Amino acid sequence: MTTPNVALAVSTVIFAARNTGPDGRKELWLPLVRRIRDPFRGLWALPGGPLKPDEDLEDSAARSLHLTTGLQPGYLEQLYAFGGLTRSANADERVVSIVYWASLCADQASELHPDLNVAWLRVDELPPLAFDHSGIVDYALYRLRNKITYSRVAHSFLGETFTLAELRDVHEAILGTPLDPANFRRQVLASGAVLDTGTRLEGTRHRPPRLYRYNTDLDLADRDPAGRTTQEQT
Amino acid sequence: MTTPNVALAVSTVIFAARNTGPDGRKELWLPLVRRIRDPFRGLWALPGGPLKPDEDLEDSAARSLHLTTGLQPGYLEQLYAFGGLTRSANADERVVSIVYWASLCADQASELHPDLNVAWLRVDELPPLAFDHSGIVDYALYRLRNKITYSRVAHSFLGETFTLAELRDVHEAILGTPLDPANFRRQVLASGAVLDTGTRLEGTRHRPPRLYRYNTDLDLADRDPAGRTTQEQT
Prior knowledge:
- Chain A has helices at 57-69, 106-109, 133-147, 164-175, 181-191, and strands at 6-18, 27-34, 44-45, 48-50, 75-82, 94-104, 118-122, 194-200, 210-214.
- The first copy, chain A, is of the alpha+beta class.
- The first copy, chain A, has a domain at 6-147: Nucleoside Triphosphate Pyrophosphohydrolase (Alpha-Beta Complex), CATH 3.90.79.10.
- In chain A, strands 1, 2, 3, 4, 5, 6 and 7 form a 7-stranded mixed β-sheet that branches.
- Chain A binds chain B through residues 1-9, 50-57, 78, 80-85, 93-96, 98, 135-136, 139, 142, 223, 225, and chain B through 1-9, 50-57, 78, 80-85, 93-96, 98, 135-136, 139, 142, 223-225.
């Protein structure tokens, strides 16, 4: 059952929505690792590495996320196994990569990592990445954009409570398009996906906006093969 | 980058809807392979095997499908990579299985395979399978049942043309529940997913039913990472 010429790696596409846009609006960022050796030396690549024999796939993805960002994922899901014959630049080696995608809460993601070979890059302005990683990021974005329309995944980019404006801001950052505030508000409230916490955003405003939390009684989420619903994972 | 203690396998969950139910209605079947050695000797398992170093993942899945059934898939999609630490019965070996799921046209699936260690079993009556394969089949069914509501996947269980009754029959076999014929007809026609071929089912009936084909102009399908839409694949 051994396949001596095929190496197995786990990589993770990590998204966070940070308040870096005009008027503090959210933009989508991801952390990447600069390659310090050939092939693709100097180019940015997805964090990851060989699967350890004694490590679960998801644990491996969470570990590389933690090593890269110092953080725990808000959401972590298997994306796809990439195994094309020509995806390694080295003809002697074939690498099959099982790729996860993850989201982080924006407040955490603003912390900088001490390693100079790790950087947060804006999704809209990515340079060509090492290996087939540009295509993998595109596919992760496609999955994220699909998923946000029917699941609670937007929640994982925010803290425990949030205003409807913050939730809309995450949707806009992911979809890359402005949404009508009144329509968004009506649809979200009608879906039953969020609950009014009864509290309001603290601050100096005359009418501070209400804070909501996700309705965890409502199973909007996908099921993964272990039967868990894919929401908060540690 | 090598992971010497981890073997990589590709397995395939293959579904076909055959006219074996009451009044010739369709039921969901899948081909399985009887294990002739330990562990799990005598139990049924998913077709598959080690990934060949020079073989694409999807090609490997299609090959095991062809070896098992003598057929080509109507639809083939990556399901999930299963890599838990305890999924092999042998403590010295860890197997990560990249699992695909596939559908076959029912007419082809009625052909029997000459190998006595391959058999078609009814999904509703599966015995416990080897390894974690029972859970994998459950997850493939979950994916199939979700997918049939928003994609053209039902098409792949039928021939090029079909009646609306046949299409409903496939949906009922997959969902495991009867559907109201008038509602189903109205929803399918309103969706634009099928086109009237202008011909009718040949036979002796006074008013033979119309034959439809899928509207391939309409992209109801998922995209896979290579940017193909997942419909007819050869």
